[in-house]
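Following up on my earlier thread - several people asked me to post the actual chain instead of describing it. Fair enough. Here it is, all 847 residues.
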Amino acid sequence: MKPIHSFLLFPLLVFMVQVNAFAQRTVVSGTVRDAVTKETLPNVSVFFKDTQIGTQTDINGKYTLVSPNPQSELSFNYVGYRTVFKNIVASATQEFDVSLVPDARALDEVVIIGGKKVKYRNKDNPAVELIRQVIAHKDENRIKSYNTVSYREYEKMLFSLSNVSDKFKNKRMFRNYQFLFQEQDSTLIGGKNLLPVYIEEKLADNYLSKNPEKNKTIVIGEKQVQFDSRYIDNKGLKTYFDRMYQDIDIYKNNISVISNEFLSPIADGAPSFYKFFITDTIKTQKPEIIELSFTPRNTGNMLFEGKIYVTNDSHYAVTGASFGVNKNINLNFVRALKIDLDFEANNKGKYSLSKSNLLADFGIGKTKGIGFTGERTVTFKNYQFDTALPDTIFQGKSTVVLADAAKRNDQFWEKNRLDTISKNQLKIYGNIDTLQNLPSFKRTMKIVTLLFAGYQNLGPYEIGPVNTFYSFNNVEGLRLRFGGRTTPELSKRYYFENYLAYGIRDEKWKFFLSGTYSLNNKSIYEFPQNYIRASFQRDTKIPGQELQFVQEDNFLLSFKRGVNDMLLYNDFYRLDYVREFENHFSYNLGFKKWSQTPAGGLNYLNSDNQLVNRLTTSEVSLQLRYAPNEKFYQGKIYRVPIADRYPVFTLRYTAGLKGVLGGEYNYHNFLGSIDKRFYLSQLGYSDVTVEGSYIAGKVPFPLLDIHRANQTYAYQLNSYNLMNFLEFVSDHYVSINIDHNFNGFFFNKVPLLKRLKLREVVSFKALYGGLRNENNPNFQTGLYQLPVYENGAQRTYALGNDPYMEGSVGVGNIFKLLRVDLVKRFNYLNNPEVSEWGIRARVKFDF
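Reply from S.P.:
Thanks for posting it. Predicted structure:
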């Protein structure tokens, strides 16, 4: 017999070892349910008995546990349930479903003991006493407790179409592109099949200083999937994902996730909103670690549930956390959410965050249908504490992106990634390029762009917005419009926009033409903008209406209540220069010549009762705007701000020039406003706008502040929803607008309403101002008379001693999209054609 060569013997031995190891492997999977309700239980701890090998059930109560050695018994442990031990077959692969029996001693359910009801209480509760110690020691354990800190941070974000069915995967369009799909364990979030569509990586050095308080981030490398800019704004997409998936700081009172504020389980007021249970003590390390489980007192509120791990010493530091949300939470489109935080002991004897992972799965249905899964993993290394940092580090902007950060090659990323990345994930960069070249994908993107952005791209020119092609009003009758704009495919420096419209009733043509020149060799749709624009527009306009984010001839705004017969024919000649800066300060310098002619039920009558056919003004204006930390998604028609806690300041000055290009009046108009969102933790959030204006000079009523009214049936946030068009004018005013969303704080406590996941909204608007005698035609000659109805009743008023006020109470999140308000007007009820009450609706997509 010939001897076996050593190079054949070694793989044979390896194979035999592997077979032997596989033969000893114990694999158990199954589902854990409530023995009474039969509902699945998430976050149940499952361990091989007397080992450290364990896992937790997922959001659907499923688990998989693997040991390389023979195992014969499992333990199941969950807050409020009796611990269960089950025998299993050693060295085998098997399924094992378990039902847990509620433990009356640990639940908030009523237990009959001597005829009395015993409920969960904070008083004399060791778990609550422990969490209060954690809260009391927060300041000493958070990273801001050090004088200086520096560390390196690696971030990876991955997004995929999830729960993709085999039918969808095998569609004809994907027949030759099966490599685009990836498979995962079906027990994980997102189902079996995934179609990755986006990946992003970032490597940065961070520096913090306590006194003086400063911070600096230097991005040394960044990489992301690049979509076709004709359809998707890559920078805006990255900004939106960053807002949705922010850093998770458990030491903050509120944690921002998916654009909502969740109360931290160690927030100052956490014991009032959470129930805490001590579920385990880990004595195998020093100091000992106590496992604290927590659950919301009200499962519908913006609260987490899960576990945190705390040192059993005088520091009470968090060493880890794993939590998600209850399936009954009042949160839209979120199928599952899981957050894991890992902390490591540092050279100061404290614990610092070493890794965080946020995984969320979205979908229209709770379990069925295609969804969208996003995962953000952040790894922290190379911590340095209380070391001297030169002042030069903090000079300039707080975030700096190195010039070559986006040009790092593969070798750089292989060397500098602080975390592993799979080959399948790396393939996404190339796969998306392949996907975008599919003709069927291009057709789909064109349809999506048409539906959501309103434009049909034809290469160098795009047609739209389509929602303005058809509308109607009482003066023009049926109004038809067609137009579009050029794209960067024609030129990155020159842009042209135009449309042509015709009214069937008034038989008049309207049109618009503009030309824009970009001064920074960037698209005018990109931030920061720097361009000059010249335009001419001949069209109609409702007096006082400057609708934001929508076109005035939008079809849906054609439906109006009450008498709606006032319109202006306008000729606008404009020249504007717009300059934005990276710090989100911007200014707009403009010149406008405006000729307006009243139409329909609106007439301009001078003090001699003579009709005035045309009013012409020439204006120069300067607008200053500062929006620190503003984030937005840049669309084709407008920017969509991503709401956050930072204020927006606006200041505008306009000067009328008499005698310049036919201008008839001299005046000065000063306007300022502040917009801010206030987060009130479990009570929701308030959007507040404070605005004021003053006009110096003698002017007729068309040049006064005509307050924003609303005669449509849509609820408009920035308008007075029960005020009629041109009902009030002022030459000085201040106003406040408060719109508060409670996020279901009250409805979540009502058993029947809780299931509907409705949300309460309230609003209040007040306008205080007036008209000086010099601008009031009742006291001054040489001014236009205020408009009246056909029957002679007064139509336009100056505000009196009382402010105009209106408020509303509403129900939001109807079908997850609709808000309906009952609006009440509190005063000036004797004015003609006004309503004290009204019902208004608004479509709003929100998580």
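The two ends are 74 Å apart (CA to CA). That should answer part of your original question.
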